[in-house]
Amino acid sequence: MSQTVDRALSILPLLAEGPADLGQVADRLGVHKSTALRLLRTLHEHGLVYRQSDQRYRLGARLFALAQEAMENLDVREIAHPHLVRLNESCGHTVHLAVYEENEVLYIDKVESRYPVRMYSRIGKPVAITVAAVAKLLLADLPEHERRAVAEKLDYPSYTARSTPNASAFLRELDKVREQGWATDLGGHEESINCVAAPIRGADGRVVAAMSVSAPNVVVTADELLTLLPLVRRTADAISGEYSGRTPVKGTA
């Protein structure tokens, strides 16, 4: 039975490359045409493949509907939280998770620092969008015309001398973040707080959330915090892999 399931599932990546006839499917699986036909008929009955008028098979609409439904029901916070906790245990600093919704970047999870000096941030609270590292990552992933439209609508408060001054500077920063794949806020919102952040991506490669590590200067310097960037990026990649389904959840078959 497991071999049958394995063969049936092997048909789907083949058809993702484009329509294929019975002979092509049989050749790819290394089975007789009669075996390939039985598998295709079963997949067809479930709407996972579709037989065209030219007798070739392609992926069925039901498969796309299932994928869309699964994506809509994914909870990035639930998936990310254990990873955020492990990162916090490793470095000791405050860890945030944020998403972009309705023109705001919001914290949806936070793991507190183990140090007595802590950040004033709350789950559900919008971030300072023009300076926050997580905001830069989320906005940098938008198509260019959307990035420009958002940037031109924003106000640019002077939180500190390092705050982003205007839309032009913000767009240049977003271009830089988009190219390098990570972001920082080094005293842009609060002089004494530094932050490094990395993106969490879905199956299509788009950024669905961003996570960060933040710490005050009295605990670590900006340069010391930047040494954590590889760890932050590995954590974000691990969350991305689990969220997108590329990486099996540890402990599952």
Written account of the structure:
It is a single chain. The protein has 253 residues and is α+β, with helices and mostly antiparallel strands. The protein is 47% helix and 18% strand. The chain has ten helices and seven strands. The strands form two sheets. The chain has a five-stranded antiparallel sheet, sandwiched between helices. It has a two-stranded antiparallel sheet with strand order 1-2. Helix 1 crosses helix 3 and helix 5 packs antiparallel against helix 10. It is elongated. This is IclR family transcriptional regulator.
Please give a quick description of this structure.
This protein is of the alpha+beta class and 253 residues long. It is built from 10 helices and 7 strands. It starts with a helix and ends in a 9-residue tail after the last helix.
Strand and helix layout:
Layout: H1 2-16, H2 22-29, H3 33-45, E1 49-51, E2 57-59, H4 61-73, H5 76-91, E3 94-101, E4 104-111, H6 133-140, H7 144-153, H8 167-180, E5 183-186, E6 193-201, E7 207-216, H9 222-226, H10 229-244
Antiparallel strand pairs: 1-2, 3-4, 3-7, 5-6, 6-7
Helix pairs in contact: 1-3, 2-3, 5-10, 6-8, 7-8
